[in-house]
Amino acid sequence: MSKVLSAVIINKPIEEVFDYAASPVNGPAFIPNLNENTNIYPDTVGVGQTFDYRFNMVGVDLRGKAEVTEFERPNKVKINSTGDSVSSWLYTFEKEGEGTKVTVELEYEFSETAWKRLASKTIVDKLAQKICEQMTESLKIILES
């Protein structure tokens, strides 16, 4: 599995940052290339919540199912996905002065059929790191505006 990581300080209270970032409804607003999360059930975020995702990587449409597997408000949420990629999205939240430090760790592996449609692993890994960095920066812009 490949792994990327990004962190950012957001000048908002930890509960506000957690509630926004942990909701799959908000994912497409701050995760680059995440086209949609659908069939979200139940509406309340927590362990066992599931949804379908559609993500674009280098022009390739990737689809699958995701599930919240860890949920410790306001400090941690983990979402695991299956489908064209197997991934683990771990968000951790820590008070940092008056704000919140958000760290996103993404571990991923693409299915063999997805790899046939994607560019080289080197390119994908570099793009994944960039996406992770853009994700935390977008989260900061949205929540601080």
The termini sit apart by 35 Å
CATH class: Alpha Beta
Note the total helix count.
4
CATH topology category name: Alpha-D-Glucose-1,6-Bisphosphate, Chain A, domain 4
Largest sheet: 7 strands, antiparallel
As a percent range, the share of strand residues is over 45%
| Poorly predicted spans | none
Order of helices and strands: EHHEEEEEEHH
Assembly context of the chains: single chain
Shape: globular
Global mean pLDDT: 92
**Fraction of helical residues:** 25-40%
Provide key terms for this protein:
145 residues; alpha+beta; Alpha-D-Glucose-1,6-Bisphosphate, Chain A, domain 4
List the helices and strands and how they pair.
Layout: E1 2-10, H1 14-22, H2 27-30, E2 34-41, E3 50-57, E4 60-72, E5 76-83, E6 85-96, E7 99-110, H3 112-117, H4 121-144
